[in-house]
Amino acid sequence: MASTVIGANITIEGEVIADEDVVVQGTIRGKLSAKEGVTVESGAVVEADVTGGPMMLAGQVTGNVTSTDRVELQSGARVVGNVKAARITIADGAHFKGNVDMDV
Amino acid sequence: MAQAKAQMRPVVRSGSRDAAVLGASVRIRGKISGEGDLSILGTVEGDVAMRGDLTIGESARVESESLEAHAVSIAGELKGDVNASGPVRLSATARVHGDLKGSEISIEEGAQFAGRLEADFELPAALGKAR
After folding, report:
1. How many CB atoms lie under 10 A from the CB of residue B87?
2. Which of A97, B19, B22, B37 has the fewest beta carbons under 10 Å from its own?
3. Which residues of B touch A11 (CB under 8 A)?
4. Closest CB from A5, A17, A20 relative to B20
């Protein structure tokens, strides 16, 4: 279990920087930088540029996503922004608008 | 006062989607608001407004103009004012610089505190008449 969880009823407006896994169930507006994995759960809203390690996106992300590892857009995810990662999967049922850059 | 230590544990119930934990390595610059409970174990610069309970863990550093929550438990470092609708507890490891307002306030032995206290309590009859 990740040590940082932004719960469903929490809104953060500003910059979040973490050296550990981050699970977002609530709302982040601003910027999210993690050294480890980022999970945006279904129902979460991230209006921010997101950087980090492996990412699982199932919620709504508006912003550029940059991963040092892989990005997984799960069914139900809504991602608007450019995704930069070495490996990307977009599941059936995921919404995505933006550019993909796998040239890392 | 003796029970305060046990209550300092983060108030997060596993599986609860209302709870939020900001881990020790996390730094947040900005505003945090919400309805559930919040545990801060890392660094926060900015205002916090929660409907639920707020726990500031021993490893936490918080700098804030205003902290609003129901019950507030502080074991870490805080610069800023607390406005709680419930009780405010400072445990032995707390270092607080700011004003505290709550329904009741307890400060454990060993806590460092500089600021004003504001709590509703009934004055003894003699003092009450004098006002």
Report:
1. 17
2. A97
3. 31-34
4. A5
